[in-house]
């Protein structure tokens, strides 16, 4: 969904596929909300299970493990981008380029902006990683702690919705860094995953009973998201209500597919592999896939083949390039660091690994 959201091949160049392409592209932004829910579900699940089994959370170890997962690939990406920028623009020094990307180094690019706008979601994730352990520790020590997670979910669901509406009313017109990227407007998506993880671990029988209705849950998610594909992401409805629709649809999708066997069959193994490489693919897809496809499109004028085939070919080139570069970055940077992390900062209890090895790289 994210790749097609950033795909620079216009829908009006897709021939008879144009209506379908417009719908897919129109709702591609919701892929980030799905990822937020999934991330909250996996990371929140690990912390909640640790707290339940040990009676406490080792926040320091959690943050170190998070940093060793996220930062090596992220900072390598930033320095490559900065180096290329300084090389292509000799009048800008390497240190001046670093200054331009200062919001990225401070994880404030979702508020201050960035020349790599797609990294906004990584800042939201970083803020989430800092706040979640603190919240769970405080909630665990308070009376009626068992209502901490569902209570916070209700507050965030309503609070973020109200804040998005107030922001729209107070600060028009639409700006990404004002209306769509800020952490305080999107934290409901991530905490929805945490609430799912809490429900799964505190009410396993009810979870299994609901999750059995997989088809209806997935259909419900599609019904929620489908209307958004006809709306502009910059419209009042999407900014205020659509983001809530998207995370609720993501929650239904995660709930419906949570009982699937991990990595079984060819498709399952492919999906599991894509999950492992997804972070690196997300980091590099703009500088790899989008840049390459623009060059190819410029050298490959329309009319040489049917519009439908040309559009599909350009889409395949972008996806293929993004996956290849992301995979290479994962093998070169992420995997060696993660192997060292498991030796130096192993999880204290291997039973905390949820359903897949290292929870899909989490």
Structure description:
The structure is a single chain. Helix 15 (265-284) crosses helix 17. It contains 18 helices and no strands. The chain is globular, with a radius of gyration of 21 Å. The longest helix is centred in the last third of the chain and has 38 residues, at 307-344. It has one domain (2-361). The chain is an all-alpha fold and 362 residues long.
Main sheet characteristics: none
- Shape, per Cα inertia axes: globular
The span between the termini is: 21 Å
* Average pLDDT, all residues: 88
How much helicity do the residues have? over 70%
Q: How many domains make up the 3D coordinates? A: 1
Low-confidence stretches: 350-361
Radius of gyration: 21 Å
List keywords for this structure.
single chain, globular, mainly alpha, 18 helices, 362 residues
Brief description of this entry?
The chain has helices at 2-5, 18-26, 30-54, 59-88, 94-100, 102-105, 109-112, 120-141, 148-170, 176-180, 183-202, 204-211, 214-225, 236-257, 265-284, 286-299, 307-344, 358-361. By secondary structure, it is mostly helical. The protein has one domain (2-361).
Helices and strands in order:
Layout: H1 2-5, H2 18-26, H3 30-54, H4 59-88, H5 94-100, H6 102-105, H7 109-112, H8 120-141, H9 148-170, H10 176-180, H11 183-202, H12 204-211, H13 214-225, H14 236-257, H15 265-284, H16 286-299, H17 307-344, H18 358-361
């Amino acid at each position: 969904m994210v790749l097609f959201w950033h795909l620079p091949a216009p829908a009006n160049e897709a021939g008879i596929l144009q209506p379908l392409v417009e719908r897919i592209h129109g709702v591609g932004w919701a892929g980030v909300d799905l990822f937020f829910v999934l991330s909250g579900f996996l990371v929140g699940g690990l912390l909640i299970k640790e707290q339940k089994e040990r009676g406490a959370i080792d926040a320091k170890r959690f943050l170190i493990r998070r940093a060793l997962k996220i930062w090596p690939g992220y900072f390598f990406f930033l320095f490559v981008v900065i180096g290329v920028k300084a090389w292509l623009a000799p009048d800008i020094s390497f240190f001046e380029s670093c200054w331009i990307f200062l919001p990225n180094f401070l994880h404030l690019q979702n508020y201050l902006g960035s020349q790599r706008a797609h990294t906004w979601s990584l800042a939201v994730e970083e803020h989430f990683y800092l706040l979640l352990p603190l919240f769970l520790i405080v909630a665990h020590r308070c009376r009626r702690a068992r209502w901490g997670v569902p209570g916070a979910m209700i507050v965030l669901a309503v609070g973020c919705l109200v804040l998005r509406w107030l922001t729209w009313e107070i600060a028009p017109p639409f700006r990404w860094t004002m209306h769509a990227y800020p952490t305080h407007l999107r934290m409901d998506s991530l905490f929805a995953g945490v609430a799912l993880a809490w429900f799964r671990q505190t009410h396993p029988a009810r979870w299994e009973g609901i999750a059995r209705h997989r088809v209806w849950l997935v259909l419900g998610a599609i019904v929620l998201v489908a209307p958004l594909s006809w709306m502009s992401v910059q419209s009042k409805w999407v900014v205020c209500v659509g983001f809530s629709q998207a995370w609720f649809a993501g929650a239904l999708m995660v709930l419906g597919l949570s009982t699937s066997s991990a990595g079984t069959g060819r498709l399952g193994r492919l999906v599991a592999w894509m999950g492992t490489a997804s972070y690196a693919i997300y980091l590099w897809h703009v500088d790899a896939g989008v840049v390459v496809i623009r060059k190819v499109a410029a050298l490959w004028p329309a009319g040489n083949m049917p519009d439908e085939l040309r559009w599909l070919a350009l889409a395949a080139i972008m996806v293929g390039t993004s996956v290849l570069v992301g995979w290479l970055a994962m093998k070169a940077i992420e995997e060696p660091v993660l192997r060292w992390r498991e030796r130096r900062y192993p999880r204290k209890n291997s039973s905390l690994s949820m359903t897949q090895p290292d929870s899909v790289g989490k």
